Hints:
Helix content: under 10%
Largest sheet: 6 strands, antiparallel
Low-confidence stretches: none
Distance between the termini: 32 Å
Mean pLDDT: 95
Order of helices and strands: EEHEEEEEHEEEEEHEEEE
Amino acid sequence: MGFEGVAFDSRSHRLVIADQDGSPGSRFPDAAAAARSRGGLAALNGGFFTPAGEPLGLVISSGKSAGAWNTASSLGSGMWHEDAAGQSAISRREALGGGATPAMRELLQAGPMLLENRRSISGLDAGKSSVRSLILWDGGSRWWLGRTSACTLTDLSASLVRSQPAGWPIRFALNLDGGRSSELWISGALAGGPVSRRPPWNRPVRNFLVLMPR
């Protein structure tokens, strides 16, 4: 299984969400455009969305909310979030709770969770192989965002227990929208860049996670 992405430290860099109110692709045709709109160093496609382009879960970008708390689907079972103090984390839906969301400056509801407290998650789909977008966290200040080669969710979860794409043990991993939505852009200002992974069959998406210096 192949991994491609960018590692960063949340003490010097942070993620923000580039969301678009109109239809997918109306403001950001690709990850590069989303990153450049914020002066970002890298960008990865974000959360799931409906055929009408509405978020399939809650999104908060610079304090502005879109979508709604997803209580029913595994595609909303986890979330990445940053509070007003600039502290970011990956949490389960039940652990964070909807009542905590007004305090968040940035939030993206997605899923399923792939790794929790360094343990793989049971019950993940083992049948469909697809390119995956994901975000990884060591539970402290070390983060990684990127994409994989085609794999099942079950295989990906098991692989993350054994592998270290960024060179450190992973404590939490969250699956984002994948398949035809999966897209990664890394600036030439970063080691190993520039990188642009957007196959011609990719579809426009609702939002992106953008990496920025603090």
